[in-house]
Amino acid sequence: QVQLVESGGGWVQSGGSLRLSCAASGVTLDSDDIGWFRQAPGKEREGVSCIKGSDGSPFYANSVKGRFTISRDNAKNTVYLQMNSLKPEDTAVYYCATDCFDPENWGQGTQVTVAS
Fold first, then answer.
1. What is the distance between the alpha carbons of residues 34 and 59, in angstroms, rounded to a whole number?
2. pLDDT digits over 61-100, tens only?
3. Which of 5, 50, 62, 84 could make an SS bond with 100 (beta carbons 3.0 to 4.6 A apart)?
């Protein structure tokens, strides 16, 4: 049974940083792709970043490239999203899921609020 649990969200001022965690069970990080997605109020859910299981290659949406870094700790079965230089438009509920392009096994989400 696959379960993903996000944590690490919170409130931060513009320019600040947060690190999100996605604790995974029932998946193998060195073979399963894990993606981070977000949904802002009134907007559709969008992909933020993804890490390939096979080789750890990271992918980023243009809106976060250069500011966010995805990584994983296979021993802890956890995927991280380090978010720096946060902007108010990054405010959203952040979710992790398996698979980069056809996501499933969604976590419950963690709220990130960036104040201007």
1. 11
2. 999 999 999 999 999 999 999 999 999 999 999 999 999 8
3. 50
Q: What is the pLDDT of residue 51?
A: 97
Alpha carbon distance, N-terminus to C-terminus of the chain: 40
Contact 29, 79 (CB under 8 A): yes
DSSP state of 104: B
Token pair belonging to 16: 């600040």
Sheet holding 78-83, edge to edge: 3-7, 18-25, 78-83, 68-73
The beta strands (E) that lie in the chain are given as 3-7, 10-13, 18-25, 34-39, 46-51, 58-60, 68-73, 78-83, 92-98, 110-115
Taking residue 44's Cβ as centre, other Cβ atoms within 10 Å add up to 6
